[in-house]
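Could someone model coenzyme A with this protein?
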Amino acid sequence: MIRYLKIDTNHALYPQECALRESVLLRPLGKDIAWFHTNYPEIDPRAEHFVAVLDHPAGERVVGCVLLIPHYPEPGSGKLMQMAVDPQRQGEGIGRRLVIELETRAFGELRLSEVFCHAQLSAMPFYGRLGWQADNDEFLEAGIPHHRMALRHVAATDD
Ligand SMILES: CC(C)(COP(=O)(O)OP(=O)(O)OC[C@H]1O[C@@H](n2cnc3c(N)ncnc32)[C@H](O)[C@@H]1OP(=O)(O)O)[C@@H](O)C(=O)NCCC(=O)NCCS
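Reply:
Sure, complex below.
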């Protein structure tokens, strides 16, 4: 069974989250998690960390994660970062569920009006399936083409 939790950097599962980010997102760029923490020291302490946890007889295993930086870069906006699913568990709906957990928190308790991310070209269809809209402008980040993608909160009406 897979459980979805919101954790912080003091949680026992945080090192597993870091290991997953390193293997899925950073190693392909020739970087490691120490490089990330050195270059972006403010991100992990400030972020809300959503993890997908597989209950396994050998112990809990983090198989997916995503970060939300609330009120960034300005109040009312939030940035999704470090979206990663274990390659052995991709295509099972884990990424979708993590983003929905993030959206629910962002538009619910945090009352943000927009969440956005910098999406690699290969991941754009994934965010698109979740209703996120892409800007036309392409830009390089870590040497890889990206587009800004965003989802705006639509307020419920009474009628
Ligand atoms: C992108 C990623 C997070 C998706 O997670 P996932 O758990 O495999 O995705 P899901 O199973 O929840 O897929 C949800 C939907 O998106 C679609 N989808 C997922 N990845 C896709 C891709 N790369 N291209 C096209 N469609 C994709 C699925 O087919 C599914 O469609 P459906 O609505 O018809 O069922 C995962 O593949 C991953 O970690 N990739 C490597 C790291 C990465 O690219 N991170 C994002 C950086 S911006």
